[in-house]
Amino acid sequence: MGIDLSLIWVLIIGFGLMMYVLMDGFDLGIGILFPFVPHSSDRDIMVNTVAPVWDGNETWLVLGGAGLMAAFPLAYAVLLSALYIPLVLMLTGLILRGVAFEFRFKADEAHRRFWDIAFAGGSYAAAFFQGAALGAFINGFVITGQTYEGGALDWLSPFSVFTGLGVIVSYALLGSTWLTIKTEGVLQEHMISYARRIVPVLLAGIVVVSLWTPLAHSAIASRWFSVPNIFYFAPVPILVVATSWQLLRLLAGGSEGNVPRAGPFLLTLFLLFLGYSGLAISLWPNIIPPGVSFRDAAAPPQSQGFALVGALLIIPIILTYTGWAYYIFRGKVTGSEGYH
Q: What string of DSSP letters covers 182-216?
């Protein structure tokens, strides 16, 4: 029995995209929370919590995109053609917030407000269009042979708009729980309060998507609600409810003395992982929904094997330097610390 290169590459790409969502999500969430923090000094602290690590988080997005091109060129061609507009707008948002991140520290007080708005606007744009692309992916694409036959705006639908807003809410929760770890005092209390309000909104969004998706796609409904699948997959929604309840219970403590240091953040990461696993269950094994599997879109084994050598070398390096960076810059960030 030979090595299943296509399956290995699906797992690598899926892992890369999951790592991007989990690690860059709280980074974007900080920008999403910017309009709700009136004091410039508090916004400085918020940005300083991710200053040493923020630009490494997009590494996982690059890994996922490059892996898709190398291992599944058909999927890369179709998805890029179908999602060209939301992906370009997402990248524009990432560029805008990256520029604003650097410039706001160098701007005088008269111009810093502009860069704060740019940072928040870029964060909202990047998060929304990531979610819109996700919604379009779930809805599927019209292809003939190996060519995308849909229009430039087929990605835009009520469902994709809803998923775009859902990703904004998800990242806001990640950002607020991250800041409960990295800040203290009044700012930390505000973040705990925001997180408590966001959890029910996110849970409601998960419920809506969980109902909307099977109602709109009979294949997904059959996947989830047929016997015995319903028993196999039942732990996912059960864990979503249990995780949300535990998250609210921890956040109800209010002060740092009553909130486990990393508990809310870790539970939020797990909540998003559950959503990610639910998406995988719904669409497996299709890499171009609704009907092109990852095996149908795979590159020749020689190409996949050649690219896999590089991936197996670079992924441990990425994990090592990422873990080291977060370890070095662990601990609280206060107003006396700056970014240079």
A: H--HHHHHHHHHHHHHHHHHHHHHHHHHHHHHHHH
